[in-house]
UniProtKB/TrEMBL annotation:
Taxonomic lineage of the native organism: Bacteria, Bacillati, Bacillota, Bacilli, Lactobacillales
Major location (coarse): membrane
Protein name (database record): Cation-transporting P-type ATPase
Listed PROSITE patterns: ATPASE_E1_E2 (PS00154)
Subcellular location: Cell membrane
Protein source organism: Candidatus Enterococcus myersii
Amino acid sequence: MKMAQAKSLQAYAKLSSADTLTNMNSTKAGLTEAEVKSRLAKYGKNVIAATKKQSLLKVFLTNFTSMMAILLWVAGLIALMTGTPELGIAIWLVNLINGVFSFWQQYRAQQATSALQKMLPSYVKVMRAGQTNKILAADLVPGDIVLLNSGDNIPADGRLLSADSLEVNQSSLTGESITVNKETDPQTDAALKNAGKYAEANLVYEGTSVVNGSGSFVVLATGMHTEFGQIASLTTSVAAVKSPLQKELDILTRQLSLIAIVIGALFFVAAVFFVGYPWPKAFIFALGMIVAFIPEGLLPTVTLSLAMAVQKMAKKNALVKHLNSVETLGETTVICSDKTGTLTKNEMTIEKVWLPTDDYTVSGTGYEPNGIVTKAGKKIDLAQEHDLLQLIRIASLCNDSAIEEKENHYQLVGSPDEGSLLILAAKADYDLRDERKNYPRYNELPFDSKRKRMSTIHQNNGQNYVFTKGGITEVLSCCQSYLKNGQVIPLTEAVKKEILAKNDDLAKEGLRTLAFADRILQTTTNLTIENCEQNLTFVGITASQDPPRENVMEAIQRCHDASIRIIMVTGDYGLTAKSIARKIGIVKGADVRVITGDDLANMSDSKLKENLTHEIIFARVAPEQKYRVVSLLQSLGEIVASTGDGVNDAPALKKADIGVAMGITGTDVAKEAADMILTDDNFTSIVNAIEEGRTVYNNIRKFLLYILNSNMPEAVPSLLFLLSKGMIPLPLTVMQILTIDLGTDMLPALGLATEQTEPGTMKKPPRKRTEHLLTKQIILKAFAWYGLLASIISIGAYFFVNHLNGWPTTALATDGTVYAMATTMTLAAIVFCQIGAVFNCRTAEQSLFKIGFFSNKRILGGICFEVILIACLMYVPFLQKLFGTTGIQLQDWLFLICIPLPLIIIEEIRKKMIRKA
Ligand code: ADP
Ligand code: MG
């Protein structure tokens, strides 16, 4: 068997499509399952192996080569060399544990994001053993016949077998974004030479996408054998772009580190010259300060909490592609949303049919043909209703969808609009099967969202007919006459007005209308849109109900509470859009501006900007026009999320700060351009994702506040020691500072990063993009409030021991147990202050009891961990020796246990006062 990998792709370009098929041992009907199996075994899965990932070992090692880690290694070394080996080992130990912990966080974040990619499988339509199937793109093999439609990604390299106005975007390979026309004819040597790389008109390449038209091809190469795969194997890992938050954190960490080093240097100088410490001892002392102030663990924790948020969003039907988007979601100020399918269910049921002669009512809902068509309250007999019959004929034959009956249940294959028309036909007892035979279709002018019409050409009794359906204005503009009791009557302006007025009445009720027209065609040549869609005879209108999605009204209310605007951008008719927008609460005022695509095309930027400051709906717009709306909103300073599903939506999706693609109805191209994909196509999922985005940012702040809290009580003891010129022995040793910063604080802090959404999160306006993570408020709260309280309490604990057992210097002179006890108490008091603080950090303004005092299990676990850790330090002899700690007495424990509660009560009172103000 000769196969693609043996022959160059260009060689196939010269063969006819039939020869290519024989060469590939395939047929138009496709491969058999057995053949697929054996080829899959031979050629492997059709996947592009991920570009080289950063090796785990390298990631692991970076955690031990950060500035802080290096400082600690050096400090440990100095301690070892200057006669305090326990201190040196302890410092190294703490450094090691901290590094492993950071690595574990990074690893988990990576796992979480890579798991997401698996949730986004891509499917392709193939022909196998004579049947069309939807299969995973990974299961394609050379020789498979793939069917392409507008918006599809091309899943492998191949030779075209058919191409119908096929245009392909090959920018992923060539970098040029102009689309390339494709055809099936064999290429000559000369043509190939002129064309250059990837330009062979009858070849398609993996990684490119269909922009227009349709076609089919036989697969020549899959996976790493494709051109795209070969390029991918050459490029090494792409550096991940840092998100704004990560950049800010980088800067923040650097700034805080700089401050830490300055403080450390000052302490060093003071310790040497003021207290008279030898320099190695002073260095380690100063190092304590540096470690206290460096916000270690900030970056990995933030990355992990972003990754966990992404996981959470995925469970709520919003797949986010990059961590950046999580942040942007929290800043979103405007959502530009489609209507059909996103805000509404996209389950159309026709309720009314209007003809210039008669009105009809249709009963029943859903895709079950249970219901009847009535006229003036009586069931109709279709044979007596000539005009209605013609409307139903157009509706069912100018139609690409089908309703399939499967085990007593009806299933729609195709679009809901068209499905509803088929149901109407069934309810009117129309014999579709017979009519299909009588009116064979031999051409189609497919629907496109710019023209908003579609037409099909049929033959009956030697006559050729054009059947057209589409939006009312779009159809009526092609009509010159109308049908009345079987007669074709010229369309006067008065009748036109009457038709439009009737349509508007229906649209005002929120019904979606479709108009139908036909004509007899004299020729069968030159069947262009211009030639066919003119001089039509208007037949009638159908009006269908598309109910709002469940919960969409609440979601819209939540957006309004959260000061997020919603702008409906739809292809549907203005009055229908307005009625639905009002029904679901998107617009409320009296002055709602409905701007159509035509208005938009003729509107200056400044006028549009002015309009954008009002309640506004965009109706009858083409997807291309979304781009302009999005970019003008952005120029007004808005952060825009925009939805879309088609090929033409891609530019707007890319332009938007958050491009949202529909997972179910969306094309591959739209999904590729988007930042977020909704697996349920539901507007509510966008709002949930925004809430999650806000929550994450708030949690990172809570986390930051908490780890900054302990800086003050860690610094004050050293300050006391220095200011008293060493009269007051150091109340907290360097090792003990390390214990808090790199030990006890870790797990509770991580718990804060996973806090549930705080009530009221969606009652505030979005965060400003310019707002910094670390605000003055947080600094004040951390240093001048929580930090101050904790300093007073911990120093109090130190002196409490002295008060009971005597001044430590005297005792220190004898055996040092009182000193050890006093410092242990300082340490333990800080830890217990942090227990209070972690509860206080859980909310910014809400009462703790509202979110449930014990509702965060991770925090409770973290607290247990830190209490056990501190108890170990107190009672395990080996650790006692390393950390200069000792066992404490019962009254000391009582003192400690009493610390958190008053702290929490004071904060609850403060928060209550804030809520009142
Ligand atoms: P939307 O779904 O938001 O209404 P579309 O671009 O899908 O936007 O459709 C625009 C309009 O084109 C619809 O409101 C309808 O009037 C018309 N339309 C939609 N689908 C079809 C179709 N298959 N055939 C004819 N007309 C259609
Ligand atoms: Mg649509």
